[in-house]
Amino acid sequence: MVSARAEPRRLCQEPCAVPCRVVSCRGDALYDLATLTLGHEEHLGDVIVGYGADVDLDVIRAWWSLRSLLGVRWLIEHGFDPSAPGCEVDVLRSRM
Rounded to whole angstroms, how far apart are CA atoms 68 and 12? Predict the structure, then answer.
């Protein structure tokens, strides 16, 4: 049973490209930038200029790698081919 006094879910108060939907959270802006540009590194420079803050590119690259590695497992578990052109394995190979 849900209490009538339960707080509603709110968006983060931190500015980010992709808002997370958790109660009173502080989003990771670099994770958001990495998610937005995953597989499209050629647009990263433009996104960073629009973001208007110092950005650690190594952190964004690390998020790309982690997200792709986790994506490979999910794709396999759900019957998809992560090595298909443009999928996670291509993203990981482009990072080498």
Answer: 25
